[in-house]
Amino acid sequence: MKNVLLEKIEKEPLSHKEALELFQNADLLDLALMAKKIKFLKSGNKVYFTINKHINYTNICSSKCLMCAYYRNEDDKDAYTMSFEQVEKELSNIEDLHEVHIVGALNPKLDFSYYITLLETVKKATPNANIKAFTAAEIDFFSKISSLSHKEVLEKLKAAGLQTMPGGGAEVFSERVRKKLYPKKIGFEEWAQIHALAHSMGIKSNATLLFGHIETKEEIIDHLFKLRNLQAQTKGFLCFVPLLFHPENTIFEKHIQKQSAVFQLKVLAISRIILDNFDHIKAYWVMMSDSISQVGLHFGADDIDGTIEKENIFHAAGATSPSGMARQKIVEMVKNAGFVPVERDALYNELKVYP
Ligand code: V47
Fold this sequence. Notes:
Layout: H1 4-8, H2 16-25, H3 28-43, E1 46-50, E2 52-55, H4 84-91, E3 99-102, H5 112-125, E4 130-133, H6 136-146, H7 150-160, E5 164-165, H8 175-181, H9 188-200, E6 204-211, H10 217-234, E7 237-244, H11 261-274, E8 280-281, H12 285-288, H13 290-296, E9 303-306, H14 313-316, H15 327-336, E10 340-344, E11 350-353
Parallel strand pairs: 1-9, 1-10, 2-3, 3-4, 5-6, 6-7, 7-8
Antiparallel strand pairs: 10-11
Helix pairs in contact: 2-10, 3-11, 4-5, 6-7, 6-9, 9-10
The chain binds ligand V47.
Residues 67-69, 103, 135, 166-169, 171, 206, 208, 210, 241, 243, 245-246, 250, 284, 313-314, 317 line the site of ligand V47.
Pathway: Quinol/quinone metabolism; menaquinone biosynthesis
Enzyme class: transferase
Domain Radical SAM core: 47-279
Protein backbone atom coordinates (compact mmCIF):
# COMPACT_ATOMS: atom_id res chain seq x y z
CA MET A 1 0.00 0.00 0.00
CA LYS A 2 1.37 3.40 -0.96
CA ASN A 3 2.44 5.53 1.99
CA VAL A 4 0.33 8.73 2.21
CA LEU A 5 3.43 10.68 3.22
CA LEU A 6 5.08 9.81 -0.08
CA GLU A 7 2.10 11.36 -1.87
CA LYS A 8 2.32 14.42 0.37
CA ILE A 9 5.94 15.25 -0.57
CA GLU A 10 4.86 15.92 -4.12
CA LYS A 11 2.87 18.89 -2.83
CA GLU A 12 4.73 20.22 0.23
CA PRO A 13 7.87 19.53 2.32
CA LEU A 14 7.61 16.93 5.07
CA SER A 15 7.78 17.85 8.74
CA HIS A 16 10.54 16.40 10.91
CA LYS A 17 8.07 13.91 12.42
CA GLU A 18 6.73 12.81 9.05
CA ALA A 19 10.24 12.34 7.65
CA LEU A 20 11.13 10.13 10.61
CA GLU A 21 7.97 8.09 10.10
CA LEU A 22 8.92 7.58 6.45
CA PHE A 23 12.51 6.62 7.30
CA GLN A 24 11.32 4.11 9.89
CA ASN A 25 8.35 2.57 8.16
CA ALA A 26 8.17 3.22 4.41
CA ASP A 27 8.59 0.36 2.01
CA LEU A 28 12.12 0.37 0.55
CA LEU A 29 10.99 0.45 -3.06
CA ASP A 30 8.41 3.20 -2.42
CA LEU A 31 11.24 5.31 -0.98
CA ALA A 32 13.37 4.50 -4.02
CA LEU A 33 10.64 5.55 -6.46
CA MET A 34 10.12 8.88 -4.76
CA ALA A 35 13.84 9.60 -4.42
CA LYS A 36 14.41 8.66 -8.07
CA LYS A 37 11.57 10.94 -9.15
CA ILE A 38 13.22 13.87 -7.33
CA LYS A 39 16.60 12.95 -8.86
CA PHE A 40 15.04 12.98 -12.35
CA LEU A 41 13.57 16.44 -11.79
CA LYS A 42 17.06 17.69 -10.78
CA SER A 43 19.38 15.96 -13.25
CA GLY A 44 17.30 13.79 -15.60
CA ASN A 45 19.06 10.55 -16.44
CA LYS A 46 22.54 12.01 -15.92
CA VAL A 47 25.04 10.74 -13.34
CA TYR A 48 28.09 12.88 -12.62
CA PHE A 49 31.67 11.86 -11.96
CA THR A 50 35.02 13.60 -12.02
CA ILE A 51 38.73 12.90 -12.48
CA ASN A 52 40.13 13.57 -9.04
CA LYS A 53 42.99 12.81 -6.75
CA HIS A 54 43.05 12.66 -2.95
CA ILE A 55 45.95 14.13 -0.98
CA ASN A 56 45.87 13.11 2.71
CA TYR A 57 48.80 15.27 3.82
CA THR A 58 49.19 13.96 7.40
CA ASN A 59 47.69 11.33 9.72
CA ILE A 60 49.01 12.85 12.97
CA CYS A 61 45.98 14.14 14.84
CA SER A 62 45.24 15.74 18.19
CA SER A 63 41.50 15.13 17.90
CA LYS A 64 41.69 11.33 18.31
CA CYS A 65 38.05 10.72 17.41
CA LEU A 66 36.90 7.27 18.49
CA MET A 67 35.36 6.40 15.13
CA CYS A 68 38.55 7.19 13.19
CA ALA A 69 41.01 4.48 12.14
CA TYR A 70 43.20 6.86 10.21
CA TYR A 71 44.81 9.03 12.90
CA ARG A 72 48.20 8.32 14.50
CA ASN A 73 50.19 9.73 17.41
CA GLU A 74 53.33 11.59 16.54
CA ASP A 75 55.63 8.77 17.71
CA ASP A 76 53.73 5.91 16.00
CA LYS A 77 55.95 4.25 13.44
CA ASP A 78 53.42 4.72 10.64
CA ALA A 79 52.77 8.41 11.43
CA TYR A 80 53.51 10.65 8.46
CA THR A 81 53.38 14.19 7.11
CA MET A 82 53.87 14.69 3.39
CA SER A 83 56.67 16.87 2.13
CA PHE A 84 55.87 19.29 -0.68
CA GLU A 85 58.10 17.22 -2.99
CA GLN A 86 55.97 14.16 -2.24
CA VAL A 87 52.81 16.13 -2.98
CA GLU A 88 54.26 17.29 -6.31
CA LYS A 89 55.25 13.74 -7.18
CA GLU A 90 51.78 12.38 -6.35
CA LEU A 91 50.23 14.89 -8.73
CA SER A 92 52.50 14.19 -11.66
CA ASN A 93 51.39 11.92 -14.51
CA ILE A 94 47.62 12.29 -14.00
CA GLU A 95 45.96 13.38 -17.20
CA ASP A 96 42.98 15.78 -17.24
CA LEU A 97 42.80 16.16 -13.47
CA HIS A 98 39.69 18.23 -12.61
CA GLU A 99 39.82 18.23 -8.81
CA VAL A 100 42.37 17.73 -6.03
CA HIS A 101 40.67 16.74 -2.76
CA ILE A 102 42.87 17.61 0.24
CA VAL A 103 42.03 16.45 3.77
CA GLY A 104 44.33 15.45 6.59
CA ALA A 105 44.28 15.61 10.36
CA LEU A 106 44.74 18.14 13.16
CA ASN A 107 48.53 17.95 13.42
CA PRO A 108 49.82 20.13 16.29
CA LYS A 109 53.35 20.17 14.89
CA LEU A 110 52.46 21.94 11.66
CA ASP A 111 52.54 25.70 11.33
CA PHE A 112 49.77 27.51 9.39
CA SER A 113 52.35 28.37 6.72
CA TYR A 114 52.49 24.61 5.84
CA TYR A 115 48.91 24.78 4.50
CA ILE A 116 49.60 27.88 2.43
CA THR A 117 52.65 26.26 0.82
CA LEU A 118 50.71 23.02 0.37
CA LEU A 119 48.00 24.84 -1.62
CA GLU A 120 50.57 26.80 -3.63
CA THR A 121 52.41 23.57 -4.44
CA VAL A 122 49.20 21.87 -5.60
CA LYS A 123 48.14 24.89 -7.66
CA LYS A 124 51.53 25.03 -9.37
CA ALA A 125 51.54 21.29 -10.10
CA THR A 126 47.94 21.21 -11.39
CA PRO A 127 46.94 24.73 -12.46
CA ASN A 128 43.74 23.55 -14.18
CA ALA A 129 42.35 21.47 -11.33
CA ASN A 130 39.97 22.85 -8.69
CA ILE A 131 41.41 22.61 -5.19
CA LYS A 132 38.77 21.22 -2.80
CA ALA A 133 40.51 21.43 0.52
CA PHE A 134 40.11 21.19 4.29
CA THR A 135 37.07 20.29 6.36
CA ALA A 136 35.51 22.86 8.69
CA ALA A 137 37.26 21.02 11.57
CA GLU A 138 40.62 21.76 9.92
CA ILE A 139 39.67 25.41 9.28
CA ASP A 140 38.79 25.81 12.97
CA PHE A 141 42.08 24.16 13.96
CA PHE A 142 44.08 26.48 11.64
CA SER A 143 42.36 29.45 13.27
CA LYS A 144 43.43 28.21 16.72
CA ILE A 145 47.08 27.59 15.78
CA SER A 146 47.46 30.88 13.88
CA SER A 147 45.35 33.13 16.15
CA LEU A 148 43.58 34.29 13.00
CA SER A 149 39.79 34.45 12.74
CA HIS A 150 37.96 31.86 10.60
CA LYS A 151 37.46 34.61 8.00
CA GLU A 152 41.15 35.52 7.91
CA VAL A 153 42.12 31.85 7.62
CA LEU A 154 39.72 31.33 4.69
CA GLU A 155 40.92 34.53 2.99
CA LYS A 156 44.55 33.40 3.16
CA LEU A 157 43.73 29.88 1.97
CA LYS A 158 41.63 31.24 -0.87
CA ALA A 159 44.45 33.54 -1.97
CA ALA A 160 46.78 30.50 -1.98
CA GLY A 161 44.45 28.47 -4.23
CA LEU A 162 41.59 26.95 -2.22
CA GLN A 163 38.42 27.01 -4.36
CA THR A 164 35.90 24.65 -2.77
CA MET A 165 35.60 22.72 0.52
CA PRO A 166 34.73 19.08 1.21
CA GLY A 167 31.88 18.24 3.55
CA GLY A 168 33.76 16.28 6.21
CA GLY A 169 33.99 16.96 9.92
CA ALA A 170 30.20 17.14 10.17
CA GLU A 171 29.89 13.55 11.45
CA VAL A 172 26.37 13.62 12.93
CA PHE A 173 25.08 16.90 14.35
CA SER A 174 24.19 15.51 17.76
CA GLU A 175 25.76 16.79 20.97
CA ARG A 176 25.07 13.38 22.55
CA VAL A 177 27.16 11.60 19.91
CA ARG A 178 29.81 14.34 19.73
CA LYS A 179 30.49 14.09 23.47
CA LYS A 180 30.92 10.32 23.20
CA LEU A 181 32.88 9.95 19.94
CA TYR A 182 34.55 13.23 18.97
CA PRO A 183 34.49 15.56 22.00
CA LYS A 184 37.49 17.58 20.77
CA LYS A 185 35.92 18.28 17.40
CA ILE A 186 33.70 21.26 16.52
CA GLY A 187 29.93 20.82 16.83
CA PHE A 188 27.09 21.89 14.56
CA GLU A 189 27.22 25.61 15.43
CA GLU A 190 30.85 26.07 14.40
CA TRP A 191 30.58 23.70 11.41
CA ALA A 192 27.57 25.64 10.10
CA GLN A 193 29.16 29.01 10.80
CA ILE A 194 32.36 28.09 8.89
CA HIS A 195 30.44 26.76 5.86
CA ALA A 196 28.15 29.81 5.83
CA LEU A 197 31.21 32.08 5.97
CA ALA A 198 32.88 30.16 3.13
CA HIS A 199 29.69 30.44 1.05
CA SER A 200 29.56 34.20 1.66
CA MET A 201 33.13 34.40 0.30
CA GLY A 202 32.25 32.50 -2.88
CA ILE A 203 33.69 29.18 -1.67
CA LYS A 204 31.13 26.45 -2.41
CA SER A 205 31.21 23.31 -0.30
CA ASN A 206 29.76 19.86 0.28
CA ALA A 207 28.06 18.43 3.35
CA THR A 208 28.39 14.94 4.83
CA LEU A 209 26.76 12.68 7.40
CA LEU A 210 28.65 9.85 9.09
CA PHE A 211 26.10 7.10 9.74
CA GLY A 212 26.06 3.51 10.95
CA HIS A 213 27.73 3.90 14.38
CA ILE A 214 25.88 4.91 17.57
CA GLU A 215 23.55 7.51 16.09
CA THR A 216 19.77 7.07 16.18
CA LYS A 217 17.37 7.43 13.26
CA GLU A 218 16.03 10.62 14.88
CA GLU A 219 19.56 12.07 14.89
CA ILE A 220 19.98 11.27 11.18
CA ILE A 221 16.70 13.05 10.36
CA ASP A 222 17.66 15.98 12.59
CA HIS A 223 21.04 16.23 10.81
CA LEU A 224 19.33 16.35 7.41
CA PHE A 225 16.88 19.05 8.52
CA LYS A 226 19.74 21.16 9.92
CA LEU A 227 21.47 20.95 6.52
CA ARG A 228 18.26 21.75 4.66
CA ASN A 229 17.77 24.90 6.79
CA LEU A 230 21.39 25.96 6.30
CA GLN A 231 21.17 25.51 2.54
CA ALA A 232 17.97 27.60 2.51
CA GLN A 233 20.00 30.43 4.06
CA THR A 234 23.28 30.21 2.09
CA LYS A 235 22.57 28.22 -1.11
CA GLY A 236 26.28 27.37 -1.11
CA PHE A 237 26.20 23.57 -0.85
CA LEU A 238 26.95 21.67 -4.03
CA CYS A 239 26.39 18.10 -2.91
CA PHE A 240 25.44 15.93 0.06
CA VAL A 241 27.56 12.84 0.79
CA PRO A 242 26.34 10.21 3.26
CA LEU A 243 29.41 8.38 4.61
CA LEU A 244 29.03 4.84 5.88
CA PHE A 245 30.92 4.16 9.11
CA HIS A 246 33.62 1.49 8.70
CA PRO A 247 34.37 -0.04 12.14
CA GLU A 248 37.54 -1.99 11.35
CA ASN A 249 40.67 -0.83 13.26
CA THR A 250 38.55 1.32 15.58
CA ILE A 251 37.42 0.50 19.14
CA PHE A 252 34.08 -0.52 17.61
CA GLU A 253 35.36 -3.30 15.37
CA LYS A 254 34.07 -6.06 17.67
CA HIS A 255 30.84 -4.29 18.64
CA ILE A 256 29.43 -2.64 15.52
CA GLN A 257 28.88 -4.30 12.16
CA LYS A 258 28.97 -2.36 8.92
CA GLN A 259 25.38 -1.33 8.08
CA SER A 260 23.47 -3.41 5.53
CA ALA A 261 23.06 -2.44 1.88
CA VAL A 262 19.34 -1.89 2.59
CA PHE A 263 20.08 0.66 5.33
CA GLN A 264 22.66 2.46 3.15
CA LEU A 265 20.12 2.73 0.33
CA LYS A 266 17.43 3.99 2.73
CA VAL A 267 19.78 6.73 3.95
CA LEU A 268 20.46 7.77 0.36
CA ALA A 269 16.76 7.88 -0.51
CA ILE A 270 15.64 9.76 2.61
CA SER A 271 18.49 12.25 2.05
CA ARG A 272 17.31 12.88 -1.51
CA ILE A 273 13.74 13.33 -0.25
CA ILE A 274 14.53 15.71 2.65
CA LEU A 275 17.31 17.70 0.99
CA ASP A 276 15.15 18.99 -1.84
CA ASN A 277 17.23 22.19 -1.97
CA PHE A 278 20.48 20.28 -2.69
CA ASP A 279 21.13 19.73 -6.40
CA HIS A 280 23.30 16.64 -5.94
CA ILE A 281 23.50 13.55 -3.73
CA LYS A 282 26.60 11.37 -3.89
CA ALA A 283 26.72 7.57 -3.78
CA TYR A 284 30.39 7.44 -2.79
CA TRP A 285 31.64 4.22 -4.37
CA VAL A 286 34.74 3.96 -2.14
CA MET A 287 32.61 3.74 0.94
CA MET A 288 29.55 1.89 -0.36
CA SER A 289 31.37 -0.44 -2.83
CA ASP A 290 30.89 -0.06 -6.56
CA SER A 291 27.88 -2.40 -6.71
CA ILE A 292 25.89 -0.75 -3.88
CA SER A 293 26.63 2.72 -5.22
CA GLN A 294 25.42 1.56 -8.65
CA VAL A 295 22.10 0.55 -7.06
CA GLY A 296 22.21 3.84 -5.11
CA LEU A 297 21.71 5.65 -8.43
CA HIS A 298 18.19 4.19 -8.36
CA PHE A 299 17.73 5.58 -4.82
CA GLY A 300 18.20 9.25 -5.66
CA ALA A 301 21.96 9.66 -6.07
CA ASP A 302 23.18 11.48 -9.19
CA ASP A 303 26.90 11.60 -8.43
CA ILE A 304 29.38 8.81 -7.93
CA ASP A 305 32.49 10.90 -7.02
CA GLY A 306 35.45 10.09 -9.24
CA THR A 307 38.57 8.19 -10.11
CA ILE A 308 40.12 9.17 -6.72
CA GLU A 309 43.52 7.52 -6.95
CA LYS A 310 44.13 7.04 -3.94
CA GLU A 311 41.90 7.02 -0.85
CA ASN A 312 43.35 6.49 2.66
CA ILE A 313 40.77 7.34 5.34
CA PHE A 314 38.17 4.62 4.63
CA HIS A 315 40.83 2.10 3.70
CA ALA A 316 42.41 2.55 7.13
CA ALA A 317 39.01 1.53 8.51
CA GLY A 318 38.72 -1.61 6.39
CA ALA A 319 37.12 -0.46 3.13
CA THR A 320 37.65 -3.28 0.64
CA SER A 321 36.92 -1.26 -2.52
CA PRO A 322 39.91 -0.47 -4.74
CA SER A 323 41.66 2.79 -3.84
CA GLY A 324 41.09 4.23 -7.32
CA MET A 325 39.04 3.50 -10.44
CA ALA A 326 39.78 4.14 -14.12
CA ARG A 327 37.61 6.65 -15.97
CA GLN A 328 36.40 3.96 -18.38
CA LYS A 329 35.34 1.69 -15.52
CA ILE A 330 33.26 4.49 -13.94
CA VAL A 331 31.65 5.21 -17.32
CA GLU A 332 30.73 1.54 -17.71
CA MET A 333 29.47 1.31 -14.13
CA VAL A 334 27.09 4.24 -14.69
CA LYS A 335 25.98 2.99 -18.10
CA ASN A 336 25.34 -0.50 -16.76
CA ALA A 337 23.12 1.03 -14.09
CA GLY A 338 21.01 2.59 -16.88
CA PHE A 339 22.16 6.23 -16.66
CA VAL A 340 24.16 8.64 -18.84
CA PRO A 341 27.65 9.30 -17.41
CA VAL A 342 28.69 12.96 -17.38
CA GLU A 343 32.26 13.97 -16.61
CA ARG A 344 32.12 17.14 -14.51
CA ASP A 345 34.41 19.67 -12.92
CA ALA A 346 34.24 20.48 -9.19
CA LEU A 347 31.41 22.99 -9.74
CA TYR A 348 29.32 20.54 -11.78
CA ASN A 349 30.06 22.18 -15.13
CA GLU A 350 29.59 19.41 -17.69
CA LEU A 351 32.84 18.60 -19.49
CA LYS A 352 31.89 15.48 -21.42
CA VAL A 353 28.68 13.51 -21.86
CA TYR A 354 29.10 9.77 -22.60
CA PRO A 355 25.84 8.95 -24.44
O1 V47 B 1 34.69 13.68 8.53
C1 V47 B 1 36.28 9.03 9.77
C2 V47 B 1 34.79 10.17 8.05
C3 V47 B 1 35.33 12.03 6.87
C4 V47 B 1 35.67 6.97 9.50
O2 V47 B 1 33.03 16.33 0.28
C5 V47 B 1 34.98 7.78 8.59
O3 V47 B 1 32.94 15.13 -1.54
C6 V47 B 1 33.89 5.93 7.82
O4 V47 B 1 35.04 14.41 4.32
N1 V47 B 1 34.51 5.10 8.67
C7 V47 B 1 36.36 12.65 5.95
N2 V47 B 1 34.10 7.26 7.76
C8 V47 B 1 36.06 12.31 4.49
C9 V47 B 1 35.27 13.38 3.79
C10 V47 B 1 34.77 13.16 2.40
C11 V47 B 1 34.90 11.94 1.77
C12 V47 B 1 34.43 11.82 0.46
C13 V47 B 1 33.87 12.87 -0.22
C14 V47 B 1 33.76 14.10 0.42
C15 V47 B 1 33.20 15.26 -0.33
C16 V47 B 1 34.20 14.25 1.73
O5 V47 B 1 35.58 10.65 6.99
C17 V47 B 1 35.32 12.47 8.31
C18 V47 B 1 34.54 11.34 8.96
O6 V47 B 1 33.16 11.61 8.93
N3 V47 B 1 35.39 9.03 8.78
N4 V47 B 1 36.48 7.77 10.20
C19 V47 B 1 35.41 5.57 9.53
N5 V47 B 1 36.02 4.74 10.38
